[in-house]
Amino acid sequence: VTERVWWKDGTVYQIYPASYKDSTGDGLGDIPGIISKIDYIKDLGVDIVWLSPMYESPQYDMGYDISNYEAVHAPYGTVADVEALISDCHSRGIRLILDLVINHTSDQHAWFKESRTSKMNAKRDWYIWRPARYGAEGRRMPPNNWRSFFSGSAWQWDEETQEYYLHLFAEQQPDLNWENPVTRKAIYDSAIEFWLKKGVDGFRVDTVNMYSKPPGLPDAPISDPGVFEQPASMLFCNGPRMHEFLREMNQLVLNKYDTMTVGELPHTPDTAHVLRYIGSNDRQLDMVFQFDIVDLGQGKTNKYQFEGYALSDLKAVVEKWQSFIAGTDAWTTAFCENHDQGRSVSRYASDLPQWRERSAKMLALMMCAMTGTLFVYQGQEIGMINAPKDWSIEDYKDIESINYYNSAVARSGNDPAVRDHVMKSIQILGRDHARLPMQWDATAYSGFTTNKNGAWMRTHDEYKSINVASQLNKSDSVLNFWKKMLSLRKEYKDLFIHGSFKGFDMTNEKTFVFAKAFGKDKAIVVCNFTAEEQKFERPGVNGKFELLISNVEGVDGTESVLKGYEGRVYLVN
Ligand code: ISL
User: Fold this and answer.
1) pLDDT tens-digit map of 202-217
2) Are 73 and 55 in contact (CB under 8 A)?
3) What are the phi and psi torsion angles at 527 (to 5°)?
4) Which of 364, 371, 384, 389 is nearest to 485 (CA)?
5) Nearest CA to ligand 1 atom 12
6) Of 22, 81, 206, 340, which one is the catalytic site residue?
7) CATH 2.60.40.1180 holds for 499-572
8) Residue 459's CB: how many other CB atoms inside 10 A?
9) Domain 110-166 CATH class label
10) Rounded distance between C-alpha atoms, residue 395 and residue 412, angstroms
């Protein structure tokens, strides 16, 4: 029997504070801006808001570099504003979870500032400091060959104290030393309990499997990285004390409150290993994000070496992560967008003007039928699409894309073929696509800001045709389709949220057909992932097919041909 708890049945809506709504006219989103949209969020039919980092930060990585866990980035507002957001959510029956970024802090955090003052400082051991290695001609080299996720060595030399510190991400994001119990306690108090006491309902836990580093910090088996850099990610994920740390975090803090946790679990393909993190008896995490679906098409040497993928690949990863909890007490998630990804319409379907609305609705239909807690990213509900292809690298802001672009282009000796391929990859996979300002209406800068110079990040050229205002009162809009799907998901929650998943015809490269089942209830979901008409063969499932919903007007469900990007859900009795 599946235990029913709020974090299983609830739909989560992710808000990226920089890009949601600017209330002050400075071009940057803020907390009062989010508060002004709370009724819009309620009306959408979501139950939980996940707020990406709003903490004090020098913003090298959009707030994932935190300089004070107990303060709010001043342009976003104050701690009191976040308290107001918590209570405005709660008074509408919405829960609020925060982003918990505890693998690293900013190099501007007071802990790191102290740590770097001297080798004798009491906080020296709160971060990961190591002496240099010396090469053949006495050349100074980092302690090992790890590459950071944001290009270059994962080690930064500190002149002052003549040692290197480890940073898996930017050099402004030094890794905390979780081996030190005093550090762990400080993290629990400052990053977690400070906010639980204010009433937040849980956390999305950033890079949750990177806190325990492999003993001895061994070299990664990288030969010459050549033009492309490969981080030693497999090596520094899922270290030996990971599970122990997460258990402790629950015992000492989380278990005292009614919380949910969803951990970001990269580079962990083994389902048995993922289950260790989310077994409900061994309280570590309630659920995790596994990234296969959003990693589709990423290059093997670096994500920005796009290689493309087949629909059968997508079907296989969806089935794998939908069904791996079967027969266990663990819980899963369903998502296809977040702040680190290109937009789903552009990545999985078609963002051409003639197809994008239908594509967005088809993906909504598919996602809302999936097992697990559903996550929707801001703008996904109106079918926002990737930035136009004619934007140049100067229009992008993200440290990951820009660093990789610069290093790949430089290493290739400015080879135009490398430059074009990286640019093309960024146009599909760049993290910035999700960070464009929210498109509220057709007024200047999409109604996101009143700033005369526009928003902090360029507004999408197509905002006049894709925005909230134009969709609110249009019955067949993407927005209204999402609302309908989210309410059907609630109405049939046994089938859609708790049901089992089974794919059909898994090698078919045009259509995706799957069944959901719960007890004797059954549903069949059919999606045409092409712009051409496709023949729909009903899978061999006994019973009468009754159309529950389609994303194409006028369809009654008896048609044996699917229109381009058509999706249908049948109940089977
Ligand atoms: O491969 C990766 C990076 O290219 C990912 O597996 C990486 O671990 C993941 O993107 C981590 O993301 C999270 O932490 C980052 C931050 O920049 C992201 O926005 C956040 O989602 C560092 O805090």
Assistant:
1) 999 999 999 999 999 9
2) yes
3) -135, 130
4) 364
5) 207
6) 206
7) yes
8) 19
9) alpha beta
10) 22
